[in-house]
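Milestone 3.1: sequence recovery, worked example.
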């Protein structure tokens, strides 16, 4: 594409430059949806400088109405005319689902008798989901197009939830850690101190998959608030499930892609590689120290030499720019808590060139923090699929509050003792049929025509 463009540089300096016969390159907009990201500001400036803008994305919707507001504000003049930059809540009131919660002091009966000081506070929270009006708003300036709409054949795609019970010792130490942290957190929250919240969440999210090492939780001042001992077991239940699944898939000629969240200072991947190697499975880990431009060549070399049955990596390393059609089964050994990352990374293997059915597994330990997190991600995925027009079965969108972020909602659910009743309802199978394709049975096992 070539042409003559007038592009304005700077703010109000009046300087223009002519770009003749220059190749037009796409602008990376992974973070262009954000309200205050540098990419978002740059994207808005480019959109204003161009007479026409074509924005392409695979994950436009984050599960709540406000995830679209700033993107559409930068792109659609109609939104700018009707809303202000600070009108995200008004947008949510019109196109989303809001919940208002009023908290009153004990014994409050309205205003103070003498001071007229209010003894109640009202909080507004946004729930996953959207009003049908949001779809109508998008139709004027958006088109949802899938590869199937373009006539490209794709195999079936199915998602499954695997709920695994912890071992007796594993569950015992987790419950003790949870109790100690919850008691300390509630004491601090009662004093208005939220500094322990991050450590509380990360410790409980990471502990089940890392029970093989000591857990020491400290607050920001370095004070130890809770501990959990290392457990010496040759293989924990979810690890055994993973090894068994990988062995079954290799017998079927299928390769497995495993996603883990703890891959840096709390790396669990060496243990997984060791367990898979002991089961005579060829496993390797894609690390962040491999440059993005070299990852495809790194992977191609190992695949061409028959060095891989299982690839383990952090989903953020492959969420964009890398097709993984050599793998047919995806396992979320640890679920990421960004909806955009989950949607991008889950379908890295479901691309043009894939000839086998794709199965995606979300494996979680029951009655844990990661169990609650998976349910919340499932609700947000359901809301996104509904907006895209995809078929969603059993995707219940209720009792979810992501107005302050998923981790905050996790903390509130944990303190309230909320339990997940049926994770399968959130990740119920929604297969996309393909002519002459293979499928899966109700347990996710591959079947042939």
């Amino acid at each position: 594409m070539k042409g003559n463009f007038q592009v304005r540089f700077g703010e109000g300096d009046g300087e223009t430059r002519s770009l003749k016969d220059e190749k037009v390159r796409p602008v990376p907009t992974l973070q262009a949806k954000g309200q205050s990201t540098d990419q978002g500001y740059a994207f808005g400036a480019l959109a204003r400088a161009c007479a026409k803008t074509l924005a392409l994305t695979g994950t436009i919707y984050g599960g709540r109405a406000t995830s679209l507001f700033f993107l559409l504000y930068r792109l659609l003049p109609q939104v700018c005319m009707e809303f202000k930059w600070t009108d995200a809540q008004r947008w949510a009131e019109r196109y989303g689902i809001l919940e208002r919660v009023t908290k009153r002091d004990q014994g409050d009966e309205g205003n103070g008798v003498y001071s007229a000081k209010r003894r109640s506070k009202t909080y507004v929270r946004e729930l996953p989901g959207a009003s049908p009006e949001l779809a109508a708003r998008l139709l004027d300036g958006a088109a949802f197009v899938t590869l199937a709409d373009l006539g490209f054949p794709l195999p079936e795609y199915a998602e499954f939830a695997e709920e695994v019970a912890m071992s007796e010792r594993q569950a015992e130490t987790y419950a003790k850690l949870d109790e100690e942290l919850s008691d300390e957190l509630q004491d601090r929250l009662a004093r208005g101190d939220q500094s322990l919240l991050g450590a509380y969440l990360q410790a409980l999210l990471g502990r089940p998959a890392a029970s093989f090492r000591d857990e020491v939780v400290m607050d920001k001042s370095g004070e130890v608030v809770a501990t959990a001992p290392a457990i010496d077991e040759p293989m924990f239940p979810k690890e055994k499930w993973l090894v068994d699944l990988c062995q079954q898939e290799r017998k079927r000629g299928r390769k497995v892609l495993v996603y883990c969240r703890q891959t840096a200072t709390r790396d669990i991947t060496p243990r997984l590689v060791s367990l898979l190697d002991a089961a005579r499975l060829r496993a390797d880990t894609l690390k962040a120290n491999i440059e993005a431009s070299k990852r495809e060549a790194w992977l191609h070399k190992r695949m061409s030499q028959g060095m891989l049955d299982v690839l383990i990596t952090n989903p953020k390393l492959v969420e964009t720019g890398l097709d993984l059609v050599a793998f047919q089964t995806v396992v979320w050994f640890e679920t990421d808590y960004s909806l955009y990352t989950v949607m991008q990374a889950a379908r890295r293997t479901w691309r043009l060139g894939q000839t086998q059915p794709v199965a995606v597994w979300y494996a979680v330990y029951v009655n844990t923090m990661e169990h609650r997190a998976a349910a919340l991600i499932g609700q947000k995925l359901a809301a996104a699929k509904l907006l895209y027009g995809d078929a969603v079965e059993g995707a219940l969108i209720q009792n979810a509050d992501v107005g302050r972020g998923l981790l905050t909602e996790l903390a509130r659910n944990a303190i309230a003792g909320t339990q997940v009743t049926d994770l399968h309802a959130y990740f119920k199978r929604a297969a996309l049929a393909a002519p002459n394709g293979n499928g899966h049975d109700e347990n996710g096992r591959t079947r042939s025509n």
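Confidence is low (pLDDT under 50) at residues 1-30, 391-405, 429-449. The longest strand covers residues 97-104.
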